[in-house]
Amino acid sequence: MKTVERRSGFGYDPNRLIISWARRMAEYKNLNILFEDLDRLYSILSKSDKPMMLLVAGKAHPGDNAAKEHIQKTIKSFAGKLSGFAIFVPNYDIALARAMVQGSDLWLNTPEFGREACGTSGMKAIANGVLNATVADGWAAEVDWQDKGWVIDHTRIGNSIYELLENEIGPEFYERNQDDMPTKWISKMKNSINLSKNYSTSRMLEEYSSLLYV
């Protein structure tokens, strides 16, 4: 939270469900699909009994004008309708990426289907116990997300995200036991962390050694 506040100038309640979208900015990463219905998104984020905060960060290639336009549109949306419930965090770098994967509850991945080669930000998220809501593309297509996260319908990404947030993700995060603990959410976090060993450099190097060189 402190890193986001320092860089953006805005604070937020960390007890809300913290949703993050952060990665290299490119048109196929499909950031703007989140904002295709601002009224509906605002209604979901601002529910008094299930409040959410959306954090967005990313850096565009200097020559990628389309990605730069996406950033400008996002900033305008956050300064208008979504003010108080969404923050664009500038100057995306390794330090900010680390802070966001450590301080988020949900990681969004919204690429155009068939265009994502990998999607490493989601791998970083699972290693930190952050649950994914993702299009099943790139690395995410290999995973059985049952009890680990949520799959976004790639044929209707925007509406699918809204439905998941409103009907599944929000209610599950705010469902608490007598000790005020979200037991279902915590179970998914544990499953998510356990999954991360399959997507680590250690596993990759071990397989290179055993399968190629031994």
UniProtKB/TrEMBL annotation:
Q: Give the record's GO biological process terms.
A: carbohydrate metabolic process
Q: Which InterPro entries match?
A: Agluc_phsphrylas (IPR011834), Glyco_trans_35 (IPR000811), Glycogen/Maltodextrin_Phosph (IPR052182)
Q: Which SUPFAM superfamilies match?
A: UDP-Glycosyltransferase/glycogen phosphorylase (SSF53756)
Please give the Gene Ontology molecular function terms for this protein. glycogen phosphorylase activity; pyridoxal phosphate binding
Q: Which domain of life is it from?
A: Bacteria
User: Per its UniProt record, what NCBIfam families does this chain match?
Assistant: more_P_ylases
Family of this protein: Belongs to the glycogen phosphorylase family.
Tell me what this protein is called.
Phosphorylase
